[in-house]
Amino acid sequence: MNDELVVLGGGESGVGSAILAKVKGLSVFLSDSGLLKEEHRKTLLDHGIDFEEGGHSEEKILQASEVVKSPGIPDTTPLMRKIREKGIRVISEIEFAGRYTNARMICITGSNGKTTTASLIYHILKSAGLNVGLGGNIGRSFARQVAEEHYDYYVLELSSFQLEGVYDFKADIAVLMNITPDHLDRYDHDMQKYVDAKMRIVRNHKMGDSFIYWMDDPVVTKELEKLKPASDIYSFTEKNNHLATAYSEGNKMYIQTKGTLFDMELELLALQGMHNLYNSMASGIVAKLLDISDDNLRLALSDFKGVPHRLEKVASVRGVQYINDSKATNVNSCWYALQSMRTKVVLILGGTDKGNDYSEIEDLVRQKVRALIFLGKDNSKLHAYFDGIVPSIEDAGSMKEAVDAAYRLAKKGDTVLLSPCCASFDLFQNYEDRGNQFKDCVRRL
After folding, report:
1. Which of 147, 162, 408, 428 is least buried, going by the fewest C-beta atoms within 10 A?
2. Its pathway (predicted)?
């Protein structure tokens, strides 16, 4: 065995890891079973990094001293099985990059809300003048930032896949928004395996570290009783129960930390709706733990612009509002979206089903949805569940078909909502591509 680091996957995360390895003087080889994007290929060539694409040289890979694996590669692939059998250590980009920085780590995970919360925390800290980077499952590669920049703080959005490969890495402030079923196809349809991956966010926590969570989440509450992390624990909830750190009462949000009480009118928050109140509360607790002033926090919570593809208002056409929630790749995300709707809805659902249970949204669909449009290669599971629940259901084979059908079915005052509950890989490159196509089609109406 040589002392070469092998990076599997040549996306943003893999290329960043390879650059960091090179900068730190390690021998590194990157391998991708598919073809690399032109920009990634050029970056690797510019840095003089040894790489291959369109297949894996197994013999070379199995000589590695350590493998940095892209979060998208499951452990069940034949190559990953061989790597594990040989006893080669497999880590994530997060674990690898964490070795080379002393910055304070603010890490956010959860089945829903993590992108918005991570973006909001980053916005608050940056607005307050802190030297902060944003990475993980969002924005630029964390490893590449560690290689090329110098930040005192990192705000990292972490998926369960990224957390699987974390061992010595520690979040100084860990935020867990919620745990609902998601990606169960990746976890042998075993909810506990998914929960265990999420709870790795408090791995290595000791006294002085902070853990922030949603007090009303039964799954997280149960896990906390089992794990009993040594960290200081802070919680948020909708209504004041005299136990939570952050809560709402009357028309205000309150955050009580370190003997101080922050308050802000709910209507001044840039993000509206119950799920967004939780995002604002969690972000506000982080801000107060980092001694951000009340004035700076109020300003940042009121002028935040939101996240693309997450309840993003696209346009109003003939009295119908079109909303792009393409980032809703699981059922719980769609539940939040429907819950925040104040009008009748034409809902566009469908894509690659990850073992979804649609019963969670059934009541809201019955109450609010005028028509359903199924956008996917195989809509049989959606039909089996929703046929007979909504009077009008149509299938669409492309985004244009879906938007045209929605235009026809919606009545003045309605909302057309793209909130698919599913991954996008059957018809689109990713959820961004799906959302961008939706926006293009709406703007052409």
Report:
1. 408
2. Cell wall biogenesis; peptidoglycan biosynthesis
DSSP code, position 35: P
Cα 340 to chain centroid distance, Å, stands at: 20
Give per-residue pLDDT as tens, 38-66. 999 999 999 999 999 999 999 999 999 99
Give residue 425's domain range: 312-443
Q: Are residues 119 and 227 in the same domain?
A: yes
Q: Where among 60, 91, 122 does a domain terminate?
A: 91
Query: Is the pLDDT at 1 greater than 50, yes or no?
Result: no
In terms of Cβ atoms closer than 10 Å to its own Cβ (0-12, 13-18, 19+), residue 305 is exposed
* 119 and 23 belong to one structural domain: no
For residues 107 and 211, what is the distance between their CA atoms, to the nearest angstrom? 10
* Domain CATH for 187: 3.40.1190.10
End-to-end CA distance of the chain: 60
Residue 86's CATH number: 3.40.50.720
Residues in binding site for ATP:
110-116
Q: Which positions make up the binding site? A: 110-116
Q: Cα–Cα distance between 78 and 150 in angstroms, integer?
A: 38
Spatial distance between the Cα atoms of 362 and 324, rounded to a whole number of angstroms:
21
CA dist 181 and 330 (Å) reads 8
